[in-house]
Design goal:
The chain is of the alpha/beta class. Helix content is about 55%, strand content about 15%.
Length: about 775
Amino acid sequence: MSSTSHPPAVQTRAVPIAALIGLHEGSDPTEWSRIRATQLAAGRGLALFMLAVTTIGAAMTVLLFAPILPWWQLGGWAALTTAIGVGVAVRRLSGHHRSDGYATLSEVRQTALEGIALATAWSIPPLLFGAQAGSGAAYGLWMILSLLMTTAAVGMAPLALPTLIFIGGVGLSVTVKLLLAHGAAPAGATILFTLLLMVACLDRARSLVVLRANELTLGERDETVSLLLREFEDAGADWLWETDGARRIVRASPRFALACGLDLVTIEAMPFLRVLAGPAWESGNFAAGLRLLADKMKARESFRDLRLPVTVDGEERWWELAASPRYDERGGFCGFRGVGSDVTEQRASADKINRMARFDTLTGLPNRLQVNETLVRAMTEAEKWGGRCAFMMIDLDRFKAVNDTLGHPIGDRLLGRVSERLSQLMDDGALCGRLGGDEFAVVVRDARDSEAVERLAQRIIETLSRPYEVDQHTLHVGASVGLAIGPRDGRTAEMLIRSADLALYRAKDAGRGVYRAYEPQLHVQAEERRVLEMALRQALDKNEMHLAYQPVVNADTGQLTGFEALLRWTSPQFGSVSPAKFIPLAEEARLIAPIGEWVVRTACAEAARWQGNARVAVNVSPDQLGNPQFVTIVASALANSGLPAERLELEVTESVFMHEGLGATKVLERVLALGVRLSLDDFGTGYSSLGYLSRTKFSSIKIDRSFVQGASKGVREAIAIIRAVVALAKSLGMATTAEGVETEAEHRMVQELGCTKVQGYFFGRPLPVEEARALANRRWDDAAAA
């Protein structure tokens, strides 16, 4: 800001002559309508002056020609001229236009009639009277007309159109008279005089238009400034302030004094910095913003958007200041002048927004952004001081089952309880946050004691695994933890998070409910997994997959009842890949749907080539049942192959029912409606689903090989479980299939326990398609021959 001000410069504008005299519209119609109103208002203001000049000129002309012409000629002309003058004056005075109003283009054009009428009246004396006058009278008439034309060019220029017509008409009549009576020289001089008057009229009219246009612009600016100042005054949170060269307050405004909590008398001449420092002035414990302000004022530098805390009546407020140095006419420093705003509410809103950006709205824990920022700082400190930090990734076990069975509101409240327990385990050196979904994270700033970090990981698992009481539901979820130590396991935050993620995956793979620390080998395994996934994505297209068929026989007679179709993958790059390795990968990579569809279609097509009634069993994953097209796929496979529906058996595991939110039961009911048989695989190894057994029409229950092997070793629990499953199946009208029977002793045992069907190496390993087909057809031929 400067101590001196300058009036705004008048703009130089290009004014088109056609717009000036009203022949066509200007570039800004609104502005020109206001300019035309000013022209018409000026014409109204000059109406009486014009009438007086016309009357005086007519009287002088009558006196000049009275000795020469008859009275009736002079009287008639004088009466006509006066009547025209009075008519023009009355017309202009009756106009409604004001200088701050608006006028149309046609209203300006209509004034041309005034100029024509006056020019006609004043052209009569030189053309008619001049022929009877001597040189003295002619000279006097020319003087009168010159005076009228000059007066019009100077005094009536604002209304340019009628003025130019009047000057041009009178000048033309005099030129014609002189040309006929006295030759070209005086006529040429008259033409030049007339043109000069017209140019002068236009120049004066243009100056008046430019002046009026700038007045309009300045008026708009003043109005805008007034509105802004009015808003400024009404805002109540802004004020002006000023200091002298010694940084003392001068000319304090009432609003500034009120903002400071002081009166005008007290605040005047007080040091500006002391007012802002408040109670901290004596202790010298200044805020950083105040120190920066002091430096700026000491260096006499302009500043803006400078925020600092101030204490007003014992309450902390936040102000935003802007100012510039002032200098006098000689360049001497006079102090500062600036504006201040109370931005306490804006800062509170910004803090709230910042909190929302860094905290999870559901749990109140730090979100992914703040966790990352904390980890970056911890990594920086560890690198700087040669220490260690730790990062844990936590994944809740069985949380999806809660969401699917009880709904998201219960799941959200469960996450809130988990966050409360997790927060209670944190001390000053650790921070926990939610990454999203059911994933949480912990940053340990000082991890030099690795055993303490591992104990914390174990406490997290134990604490989060305790039962939860949510809305009269007792919920059981667990936790798996992946642990990485920085900078050993990663030089950057991104690398450390990746290492912890790999360790978490290893913990899940180990059976969940445990923690695992990162090992360098995990990166190698992750890369192998990535390459394996890429190869798996192309396996179907490259015909690298095939089905093997393991026989299922009657437990009592040993007669073949069907086959279980088992998926196999032989990769040119990896060789024969275990199903235990690639099937979970296919499920995680969302490849199980196309692979599963291929298995169903291939198995149905092959079974249709078997003679007799041998069934084919196909394993179905929960993800396949979540596909809306699954029932259509099964129906299409049966129709295309011609296989009877009762010869297809779909095997599902108990985990299917934990995806009830996906509608697994309804899908199975639609499959049953096709005539397809259902078998419950690995019963007893997963979640309890006796309720689903009673509601879903399974044709058989498969007993997992772990129970068969346990029973063969005399484990009482395994024997009891097999007996219980057999009894349950009989009561529900279902068959039981014992898996993994490898010896004759195991065969006899499951027979004695009541199993109806047997599957295992004792009766046959998984067979290639040709051998399985030959076996099925041979058994059919043997049965037919018998």
